[in-house]
Design brief:
By secondary structure, the protein is mainly alpha-helical. Helix content is 62%, strand content 2%. The protein is built from eight helices and two strands; from the N terminus they run ααααββαααα. Strands 1-2 form a two-stranded antiparallel sheet.
C-alpha cells in the first residue's frame, strides 16, 4: 500500500480522489422504505409479452430459424411420391375404399414436423432466462404471468409455423373434399 501511494500512477490518477472526503448520505427511516406495490397480473402479463416479443425480434438468428425450419419440414413432405395426391382411392369393381398410404405418410410427416418446430421454439427457454426470472421473482413477479407470456408468444409463433408447414406440404397435392385417410369409410367394430 505504501509503495502504491508513493508511485507516480497514484499521484496522477488516485490522489485527487482519495483527497476528497467521503460524503454522508441521508438514508430515510426504515418505515419510509417500503417495497413498491407489485403490478397486477394482467399488467405483468402485458409487460412480459411486450418484452419477450422485442427480445425475439432483436434475435436475428432465432428469427431465421423460425422461418427456415418450417419451410424445410414442409418441403420434406413434398419428397414423398409427389405425383400421388391425397385423394381417397376406391376400387372400381367392388367400390371398397383402398387406404391411401401416401396420404398417411404425408400427414405423419407434417404432424411430426409441426411438433418439432414447436419444440424447437420452446427448448431454448428452459435455461436462457433463469437468472432474470429469479431476480424478478424476488421482486414480486407472478409465476403464472411469466409462464403465460411464454405460452402466448410461443403459441402464436408455433401456430404460424404450423400453418406454413401445412401450406408448403399441401401446396402441390390435390386435396379431397372429405377425410384424407379414411374418407367416407365406416369404422369397423373389432371383435
Amino acid at each position: 500500500a505504501a509503495r502504491w501511494r508513493g508511485s507516480q500512477h497514484y499521484q496522477m490518477y488516485a490522489a485527487d480522489i482519495d483527497a476528497v472526503a467521503a460524503q454522508s448520505v441521508n438514508m430515510p427511516p426504515a418505515q419510509q422504505m417500503r417495497p413498491p406495490k407489485p403490478q397486477s397480473w394482467g399488467s405483468q402479463l402485458f409487460t412480459l409479452i411486450r418484452r419477450y416479443v422485442s427480445v425475439i425480434v432483436s434475435d436475428k438468428g432465432f428469427m431465421a430459424l423460425m422461418l427456415i425450419l418450417p419451410a424445410v419440414l414442409g418441403a420434406v413432405s413434398l419428397l414423398i411420391d409427389p405425383d400421388k395426391g391425397l385423394l381417397v382411392n376406391q376400387n372400381a369393381q367392388t367400390g371398397r375404399i383402398i387406404p391411401n398410404g401416401t396420404a398417411t405418410t404425408v400427414l405423419l410427416i407434417l404432424a411430426v414436423g409441426a411438433c418439432f418446430a414447436g419444440a424447437a421454439n420452446s427448448v431454448r427457454e428452459l435455461i436462457k432466462e433463469r437468472v432474470i426470472y429469479e431476480r424478478e421473482r424476488a421482486t414480486g413477479l407472478s409465476r403464472s404471468a411469466y409462464l403465460m407470456s411464454k405460452v402466448v408468444v410461443l403459441g402464436m409463433i408455433t401456430v404460424i409455423q404450423g400453418g406454413l408447414v401445412g401450406a408448403i406440404g399441401f401446396a402441390t397435392r390435390e386435396l379431397p373434399e372429405e377425410g384424407l385417410v379414411l374418407g367416407g369409410a365406416v369404422m369397423l367394430e373389432l371383435s
